[in-house]
């Protein structure tokens, strides 16, 4: 099965650590990162899609994607 996640958060070191953690758990970057400005909070927000092949498993809507 192929799984997809879209990581989001403030554009700071914690977001970079979340993406780095995913990469070290076997996820691959999928496309370019996204940035947008949240005018309500005054923060830049970042997003990055990641994908991962998980052999031997079938997709089901109840699976926890981050644990794959």
Average residue-wise pLDDT? 95
Q: Which spans of ≥5 residues are poorly predicted at pLDDT below 50?
A: none
Largest sheet: 4 strands, antiparallel
What is the share of helical residues?
Answer: 10-25%
Q: What is the CA–CA distance across the termini?
A: 10 Å
Shape: elongated
Number of helices: 1
Please give the number of β-strands. 4
Cα-atom Rg, whole angstroms?
Answer: 14 Å
SSE pattern: EHEEE
Strand content: 35-45%
Sheet/helix structural class: alpha+beta
Map the helices and strands.
Blueprint: E1 2-10, H1 13-24, E2 28-29, E3 34-38, E4 43-53
Antiparallel strand pairs: 1-4, 2-4, 3-4
Describe the structure concisely:
With 68 residues, this protein is an alpha+beta fold.
């Amino acid at each position: 099965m192929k799984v997809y996640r879209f990581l989001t958060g403030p554009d700071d070191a914690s977001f970079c650590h979340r993406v780095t953690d995913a990469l070290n758990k076997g996820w691959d970057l999928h496309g370019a990162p996204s940035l947008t400005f949240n005018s309500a909070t005054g923060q830049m927000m970042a997003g990055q899609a990641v994908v991962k092949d998980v052999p031997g498993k079938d997709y089901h809507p109840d699976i926890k994607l981050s644990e794959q």
